[in-house]
């Protein structure tokens, strides 16, 4: 094995981190954050993307529209739209873009820290020492991934990670995505081990020819019956 490809949620990091820390951070700081950063160019870029998304959503959903008028009304309508998207757990690029932007400030100010399982961190260090390359493939944006690993509760782990992939390469349940990643990192799928808590992702990677291990962690969804190897301590994987 040359390459280890890791999922994040339910694999290196508790699923609860996203739902009990990252998402609540966005919701609880949104109003204050928008006020504080209102004139930042980057925020205005994200607002434009959210407006465009709201227009596209209009015929299909009961999406709250974003009003372009005075800053107070615009901000209030933005908050309605963002709360609505997050309640539906939508994964639009516009929403992810704003969330990533807010998380960056949260991590940099020390209000947020990426939570990692101890054995996952130890294993990542061991694999690197053994000469293996470690990559991340997560549905969170590459920027969000780098923040979790860069500002983790085990320090900055980015030095151990050779590269990051998100759903821009394709869906995590599509075997083509895993073929593309192997090609991109110049290895054969057979030389790559993919670890994830999601059986559909595991099946897709396996179909692409990768070796696979199912991550078993506290708080993960119950697994359907399967014939793949399982692990709850990655330091035993070599
Ligand atoms: Mg996962």
TrEMBL record:
Pfam families: Hydrolase. Mg(2+) binds at residues 7, 9, 197. GO terms for cellular component: cytoplasm; nucleus. Substrate binds at residues 138-139, 172. GO terms for molecular function: acireductone synthase activity; magnesium ion binding. It is found in: Cytoplasm; Nucleus. Its cofactor is Mg(2+). It catalyses: 5-methylsulfanyl-2,3-dioxopentyl phosphate + H2O = 1,2-dihydroxy-5-(methylsulfanyl)pent-1-en-3-one + phosphate. Its EC number is 3.1.3.77. Pathway: Amino-acid biosynthesis; L-methionine biosynthesis via salvage pathway; L-methionine from S-methyl-5-thio-alpha-D-ribose 1-phosphate: step 3/6; Amino-acid biosynthesis; L-methionine biosynthesis via salvage pathway; L-methionine from S-methyl-5-thio-alpha-D-ribose 1-phosphate: step 4/6. Keywords: Amino-acid biosynthesis, Cytoplasm, Hydrolase, Magnesium, Metal-binding, Methionine biosynthesis, Nucleus. InterPro entries: Enolase-ppase_E1 (IPR023943), ENOPH1_eukaryotes (IPR027511), HAD-like_sf (IPR036412), HAD-SF_hydro_IA (IPR006439), HAD_sf (IPR023214). CDD domains: HAD_EP. Binds 1 Mg(2+) ion per subunit. GO terms for biological process: L-methionine salvage from methylthioadenosine. Its main location: cytoplasm. Belongs to the HAD-like hydrolase superfamily. MasA/MtnC family. Monomer. Bifunctional enzyme that catalyzes the enolization of 2,3-diketo-5-methylthiopentyl-1-phosphate (DK-MTP-1-P) into the intermediate 2-hydroxy-3-keto-5-methylthiopentenyl-1-phosphate (HK-MTPenyl-1-P), which is then dephosphorylated to form the acireductone 1,2-dihydroxy-3-keto-5-methylthiopentene (DHK-MTPene). NCBIfam families: enolase-ppase (TIGR01691), HAD-SF-IA-v1 (TIGR01549), HAD-SF-IA-v3 (TIGR01509). This is Enolase-phosphatase E1. It comes from Coemansia brasiliensis. The lineage of its organism: Eukaryota, Fungi, Fungi incertae sedis, Zoopagomycota, Kickxellomycotina. The gene is UTR4.
């Amino acid at each position: 094995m040359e390459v280890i490809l890791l999922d994040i949620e339910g694999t290196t990091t508790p699923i609860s981190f996203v739902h009990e820390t990252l998402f609540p951070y966005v919701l609880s700081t949104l109003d204050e954050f928008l006020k504080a950063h209102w004139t930042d160019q980057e925020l205005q870029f994200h607002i434009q993307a959210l407006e465009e998304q709201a227009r596209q959503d209009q015929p299909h959903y009961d999406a709250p529209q974003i009003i372009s008028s005075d800053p107070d009304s615009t901000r209030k309508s933005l908050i309605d739209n963002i709360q609505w998207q997050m309640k539906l757990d939508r994964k639009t690029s516009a929403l992810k873009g704003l969330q990533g932007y807010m998380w960056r400030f949260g991590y940099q100010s020390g209000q947020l820290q990426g939570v990692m399982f101890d054995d996952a961190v130890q294993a990542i260090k061991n694999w690197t020492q053994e000469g293996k390359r470690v990559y991340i493939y997560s549905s969170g944006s590459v920027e969000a991934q780098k923040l979790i690993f860069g500002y983790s509760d085990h320090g900055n782990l980015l030095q151990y990670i050779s590269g990051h992939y998100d759903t821009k390469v394709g869906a995590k349940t599509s075997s083509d995505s895993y073929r593309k990643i192997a090609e991109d990192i110049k290895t054969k799928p057979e030389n790559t081990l993919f670890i994830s808590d999601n059986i559909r992702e595991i099946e897709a990677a396996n179909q692409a020819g990768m070796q696979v291990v199912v991550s078993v962690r506290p708080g993960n969804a119950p697994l359907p019956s399967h014939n793949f190897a399982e692990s709850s301590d990655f330091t035993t994987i070599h």
